[in-house]
Amino acid sequence: MSAGHRSALETAEDESRKRAELENYYKQFGSSFSTAETFNFDDLVDPRDTRPLIIRALRTVRAGNTAPLGPKVRHGIMP
Questions:
Q1: pLDDT tens readout for residues 26-40
Q2: Three-state SS string across 26-77, please?
Q3: Residues 44, 31: contact at Cβ < 8 Å?
Q4: Cα–Cα–Cα angle for 59, 61, 66, nearest 5°?
Q5: Rounded distance, CA 65 to CA 28, Å?
Q6: Domain range for residue 19?
Q7: Could you tell me the pTM of the whole model?
Q8: Is 21 within the bounds of a domain?
């Protein structure tokens, strides 16, 4: 933070107070909970639970997709 706000810190009357203000300002953006609330996320996933969650979602999608992939086979008279 010192490099990004060097001029603001150098021109401030009380450098420690200005530094505390800047830290408090940036703390509100650092929390994953406040970010999720801002962007209306439905759920936060713990990184340790990511793999099982993805596997469960892929299995659900795979089970629901019974249509063959690729072009649809059409039988009939060719033009």
A1: 877 777 777 787 778
A2: HHHHHCHHHHHHHCCCCCCCCHHHHHHHHHHHHHHHHHHCCCCCCCCCCCCC
A3: no
A4: 105
A5: 42
A6: 6-64
A7: 0.38
A8: yes
